[in-house]
Amino acid sequence: MKQFIRYFGISILLFSCSGKKFSPEIPASVIAISQPKAVVLDALADSLQPEIISRKNLPGPRIIPIPQREGETIRYQDETGSTVLMTLSPPKTKELLVLSDPNGQALSDRTGKSFLLGEGGISQFKSYTTDDGLALDGVNCAILDRRGHLWFGTNGGGLSRYDGNNFTNFTNAHGLVNNTVRSIWEDKDGMLWIGTLSGLSLFDGHKFTNYTTSNGLPHQVIFDITEDNNGHIWMGTGGGGVVRFDREKFTAYTTADGLADDVVVAVGKDAKGRLYFGTNGGGFSIFDGSGFSNFNQTKGLAGDRVRSFGSDASGSMWIGTIGSGVSRFDGTSFQNFTIEDGLADNIVRSIQEDRSGNIWFGTEHGVSRFDGKNFISYTKDQGLSANAVLDIVMDDSGKLWFGTDGGGVSRFDGSSFTSFTVNQGLGANIVLSSLEDSKGNLWFGTFGGGVSKFDRQGFTTYSLDQGLAGDIVYSLMEDADGVIWIGTSGGLSQIDGKNITTFTSAQGILSTEIYSILQDQKGRVWLGGDLGLSLIEKNQITHFGPNQGLPGSVILSLQAEKDGSIWIGAVDGGLAHFDGKRILPITTVEGLVDNGVIQIKLDQQENLWIGTEHGLNLLTQTDKKELLRGELANFHKFTTDHGLPDNVILQVVPLKNGKVAVGTNLGIVYFDQPNHQGTGPAQLQNLEIFNSNTGFPVKDLTDGQFGMFEDQFGILWAGTGSNKTALVRFDYAALVRNQEAPKVFLKQIRINEEIVPWSTLSSESPMDQVAFEEISLLGKTLSDVERTRLQDRFKDLSYEQVSPFFQIPDGLELPYRHNHLNIDFGTNELAKPFLVEYQYFLEGYDEEWSPVLKKTSATFGNIQEGEYTFLVKARFTGPSEAEAGEWTEPIAFTFTVLPPWYRTWWAFVIYSLLLLSLIYPVHQHQRNLTIKKEQEKARERELQQAREIEKAYSKLEVAHENLKSTQAQLIQQEKLASLGQLTAGIAHEIKNPLNFVNNFSGLSLEFIDEIEEELDKMEASDAVENVRDLLTDVKTNLTKIKHHGGRADGIVKSMLMHSRGGSGAMEPADLNEVIKEYVNLSFHGMRANKNPINVEIQLELGESLPKIPLNSEDFSRVILNLTKNAFDAMREKVNQSGPDYKPKLTVRTRDLGEKILLEVEDNGPGVPDDIKDKLLMPFFTTKKGTEGTGLGLSITHDIIKAHRGTLEIKTEVGEWTVFHIELPKG
What we know:
Helix content is 19%, strand content 33%. The protein is an alpha+beta fold. The protein has 5 domains: 18-58 and 508-734, 7 Propeller (Methylamine Dehydrogenase, Chain H); 138-363, 7 Propeller (Methylamine Dehydrogenase, Chain H); 744-756 and 817-903, Immunoglobulins (Immunoglobulin-like, Sandwich); 918-953 and 979-1060, no CATH class; 1067-1224, Heat Shock Protein 90 (2-Layer Sandwich), CATH 3.30.565.10. A 5-stranded antiparallel β-sheet has the order 1-57-56-55-54. It has a 5-stranded antiparallel β-sheet with strand order 2-53-52-51-50, with no helix packed on it. A 5-stranded antiparallel β-sheet has the order 3-49-48-47-46, with no helix packed on it.
């Protein structure tokens, strides 16, 4: 954004973009918090009365006749009375570009009016060249396929496909017969036929099939192709007449069969299915299925060298010629058009009808649009990439693409936006103000270039060189007499067609920086400037400022009411209303969104719109009346929170079509004028944003008076802060809107981030298809070794078939090791793919649809076995009609991930057989095991009684036993996990078969011991030794089963204990006392355990902490688990760092107001980032071997959550770890 009027200093300062971003979170309406208080002028003290200056005693203004020749001089007296000699020059005039003949002479219509090129300025073209990925910049032909993608045939670079994001190129390396492509046709089956200089290629989406003279094609040069109603392919050749191909054989038709000429350059088909063949000298022939009818110049055709055909909605055929213009043929007669009628050139190479019924002609000197009456042409000067247009194609959104000779491809986004700069004759590239006078001329005040008058044919500029007061023109106004008033940086000027009259402070005006001008119903003129407000009347000038009640002195905007009162906008103070007797100041205190008022406008319903530096206000007619009565008023407020692109409101224009246009730092926004009833907040409806982010050539606007306005034709004109766009002409009605929702398609499936040429994986794929995919996807043909490696890597992967054009595998089955997928997708939105939003969902993997995204890929990792369906949908967020902006129906891609071998059905069968094999020995030894266990229990009871007796006589032994009990409690509590009822059920189900495995593995070990005893009694032999070896292996396996079964049993017990949870109620407890008791208990437990370490314990407990609700039994586990983990971590660092490291544990509490803080900090090794997020997950442990279950921190987290608290882990690797806990007080 560039703002050019500033309230600090006497001259202008530029605002920067970064300095004006402000997005407050505010409601849509604000009720005033204070009643407005008016200042009655008659009640003011004499010293505060407005200054009134009589004009009788003032020197007259400077009057300079508009000079007609260079070097004219005048003498005048300046403000000091000194005589000044001034040299002048005539106004600068520059005509807009018009259509000219090959000799450069301007062409005119029958009325003598020249043919203006385009809309006079720079049109909205976008070019694509080899820099963007196009195969070659010479584009001979183009088509749109049924998927909505464009294909371009180049003059030596092969074939290019464009999908909206990327070009994919196909050459003879892919199998194309020749890289010089003259024509492309898509048949009824979706296959492409490509005509080249060396024959015909058929592309089925997988491979090219070529036809040349060696396999039956009558002539190798194929100029054009079409398909008849029977599905036969017809080709125009470079000397072999026309050829029909019925998919089995070729049939040639030449002059001997009645064809007009054997060189057939163009082929077309009319609405009746008749075929048209344009020749290089014989006119054209029509084939009705039985014979040829020939038409040439003698029958009314414009010329005999026919280059192109096109049809329109009325059924007429258009015939473009080489050098003779274009003919419209209604079946019986011709109507011819040439450059004399406004056609860009008489060489017409392509013809296309757009969806509005206009006919477009690609010529040797630009492209022309015919609306049925007139031609409008566009050339390089209007933004076309090259003048020679060889083909035209329209995409699904209605936008036209032009293939050029040497300029690549140009896309035309319509005539809605046109830019004018100094190159078209504008005085300067920054436009501050604008005006349409009573004669229909447009006036544009510029920054540094004076004022430019635009008669829609050219610009005439007035500046200091013609006597203007200043070259910076802030404001413009036409008075009732047709005189143009110009507010500049050097005073006030008037242009009446003959003279330029200038007023400065010497003539009594208050400010020489004049930002706004207004003529009221009485014919009086008001001037707003940097020092306040001036009222110019016939005999006097009156000055108003803050002393008279104005909220500020820098007046940017003035607006008259029907009753003769005026609104005054001060960028340094707020808004004011002046009825001639009193001034009513209005600021944020009265409800204004911001005191920096830039624009004020009344709409057709007499609602007042106020644009400020921090948002937009609407004051309805009803609210306005309440405000002027001195009552509280309702200001409706709109900011970025309500959809505006930016909060700096630089321009406001109520439009004739019932909408409101608002200019901001970030472009123009349109919305419906609110039809507000009642007292609730008004809403912005049907909001549309036009800026560079949405693909339109406008960004920041300027803030001068009428820097944006609507002319009599409904065209919006806006001055911008860009040298590139400068003045923007916006024809809202000419917007090209999408009429259909986008088509979504899949572009690529990658496995483990790797691009896969799918046909390479199948031994049944034809070799030419394999080579095509490898070159298309990998950029080369794989060697036999590379191909074998690829096949081995994906040998277990399978699919049913590969779809054409975009190689997507149908019926894909993935082995478990390839369960990482990347899916790329897109749409047929070619012009503005960045305005397409997507959502995707993987059934069986995701729980809900993804957020709305603009990225065109999705990644899924660690996909478990099962069948999955990927769904993706899209919507277009740019200009659209009806339901074209709604979400599309999702497209689907289904695939299957196979289980790993150890989770296959046959693996579970083996597990079952192994388990059954243990039943027999278990049955044999069950009784012995039971007896032994009972004996062991009896002995244990006796020993326990003895220990209890011994405890009674020995305090030391008692303390020792208590310590052992505490250690057991620590081990038990750290394995708690609040896994809920589902965890308890699962644990119970697992425990029974787990007991079975543990018991029978133990019995099996005993059974093996007995067998070994029996073997010892047997005579030694090889057989006995073999059996002994087998038993040793089995015994080893059983020992491992028993060991890990025991560990699993421990985990299950922890799960069961935690699933039962604490049953104690929450009671007020002293958190500091709990911490002291259990930190001490944990420390002594660590010291009594193996591998004790010395730890400095520091308790930083807040004083006067209130008691908080605690389940003390449960919360003790939190203290024990966290301190135990800290001791373990510091023990590990002791082992790594040696004696220089001093372990330290700090526990602190603090009152946070609504919450209590508890932190447990150690100076251990810290936690790596890749582990920190997993610490609170059940069963995740960093401890080695079987030292931990991974449940301690999970249990701790659940207990804290049960207390309605939060747990956060803070760490620095190698330095410290802090467990940060916040608990509510109530």
